[in-house]
Amino acid sequence: MSIMSLQNKSIPAHVAIIMDGNGRWAQQEGHERTYGHQHALTAVREAISCAAESGVRYLTLYAFSTENWNRPKEEVDLLMSLFVQAMHNELDELNASHVRLLITGRIEDLPEDCQQTMRHAMEVTANNKGLTVILALSYSGRAELTDMTRNIARLVASGKLTPEEITTNTICQNLYLPEVPDPDILIRTGGDTRVSNFLLWEIAYTELFFLPILWPDFRKKDLLEVIDQYQNRERRFGKTSAQVSKK
Prior knowledge:
Blueprint (H helix, E strand, L loop, with lengths): L13 E5 L3 H7 L4 H6 L2 H14 L3 E8 L7 H24 L3 E5 L7 H14 L6 E8 L1 H17 L10 H6 L11 E4 L18 E4 L9 H12 L9 H5 L2
Parallel strand pairs: 1-2, 1-5, 2-4, 3-4, 5-6
């Protein structure tokens, strides 16, 4: 599978990935779970590079969920440190590759140094016109929907909006990143077949792919194979096959 073989068909605008399996990969290698997190960056680089070369416009990576705060403190602390270290190490390359960085989630819950690092990276890359990489940090779909509901409730309470005026577009405009299109593809590595509270509103019509490989083993070829499969799926969005074929 090559990138050239994909170009004659529809390229997904937005790919989202649940990066699962770091801990199990480390244990298979005879190490502590944290070893897997430390060796996941190669897979991240491969995903970003492949997405950019393929013409994907948005790549969302589920890096840390609101539920992950319940993990052992030493693992959480290491992850926060790795996020900061990785961003310091990768920012120049991302910027040189015209990658724009966005964060989705409750960024205010992150440690101060992590917040500052992420905000700085977003500022530095804000004007880049290439691939947009979205890191989901302290994110969950239910938290996003809760925050969206609060925002709309405030609009109603202030008299700026009536309940009758609330539409699906109102909801979309009050999500964390309203300017980002819904994912065309959601990939989960690690073998589990669930979405784990990720982009619950946005994946209503997303094509789902569950891969058996663990995240540290993910490479460009894996993303290319998923895109190839996606290009051979029929996306009907509630219509019939006959209606879709007329387009």
